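Sequence of CDP-diacylglycerol--serine O-phosphatidyltransferase (Methylobacterium gossipiicola).
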Amino acid sequence: MDDLFPPFAPDANEPRPRRFKPVPFRMIAPNMITLMALCLGLTAIRLAFEGKFEPAVIAIVAAAFLDGIDGRVARMLKGTSRFGAELDSLADFVNFGCAPALILYGFALKELKSVGWIVALIFAIAMALRLARFNAMLDDPNRPAWKKDFFVGMPAPAGALTVMLPLYLHFLGLPLERWAAPVVLGYMLCIALLVVSTVPTFSGKTVGKRVPREAVLPIFLVGVAAFGLLISFPFEAMVALAIGYLVTLPIGAAQYRRRAKAEARAAATLAPPDDRDPGGSERDRAVDS
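Predicted 3D structure, token representation.
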């Protein structure tokens, strides 16, 4: 009987089974925040199908908040990765492209039937194109450092929160009349065009890296006041933020043009004389002759 089950001794030369390298938690934490934001966006779509537009809008606002902190958490923990960047773009398309389009379609655009659905499609596709362009520009090595202060076109979270302005106004008591659907359609189309446009918008990525010591306490007070207003008067605050953001778009574009002109003047000053005045050598030859 002992011969039927001989003892097995593994060969010492046999390669060991492959073991996966453990992943640090700092690489997982930012992606978990992104996935939570994605869950909120998908839940907002479900709530819109059920006609619960107010909690659907709150879910999109919460997803935008999480989207604003996941990248900062990744940089703070030194957990940035290509996987996280791609996951963030896919989540942004669902949260800020598909979800607002479906919410507004169920809210007002369905009254216009196929025309309303076409505009909802245009907004979602515009958001996808904007995110694809943003990812492509990340790999541009020739982009000046100061351009990091600006986005090309309206960013995805701002586009989603701004396009839902008609919903905020409705929650504050603005009646939904028969003329509301065409107005919402035109407004949504304008936001979609701003999303895919090349209009420079202020990003604010470099704001707050260094805060003067005397400004710390006022910033705390302003932050607490803003948070209190958002909690106590959420839709009034969202209306003010959406309108304020739209008003500041020309200011950001003007500041971008001013900095671009300053860079062009600096480059012309540092250029060699032959590059600054192509006709200078011809005039010199004419004088010599």
